[in-house]
Amino acid sequence: xxxxxLATLLxxxxxxxxxxxxxxxxxxxxHEVTVKVGDTLTFLNSDxxxxxxxxxxxxxxxxxxxxxxxxxxxxxIKAPGQFSVECAIHPNMLLEVTAK
Length: 100
Hints:
The chain is mainly beta. The chain has a single domain (about 15-100), classed as Cupredoxins -  blue copper proteins (Immunoglobulin-like), CATH 2.60.40. Helices cover about 15% and strands about 40% of the residues. The protein contains 1 helix and 9 strands; from the N terminus they run H-E-E-E-E-E-E-E-E-E. A 5-stranded mixed β-sheet has the order 3-9-8-5-6, with no helix packed on it. Strands 2-1-4-7 form a 4-stranded mixed β-sheet, with no helix packed on it.
């Protein structure tokens, strides 16, 4: 049992962790997340309409494009720092990311 737990920790440290960010009610849930470089953010659209999630942070820039209801899209954190993630369609949606 200890070998399985150790192997799981080793795999997580090599490949990073996945953090699921739900998009529901025109908001990101959670509103704040702390991650490590190499971790991923998986955006799950639980709203009945599309979102367009992006950040213009130079070190971690991404734009996942139009994301249909019920779909997931994943991005990888590339550099440490603090940045905001927004929705191009719903400007009040805001996620604060701290990457270590």
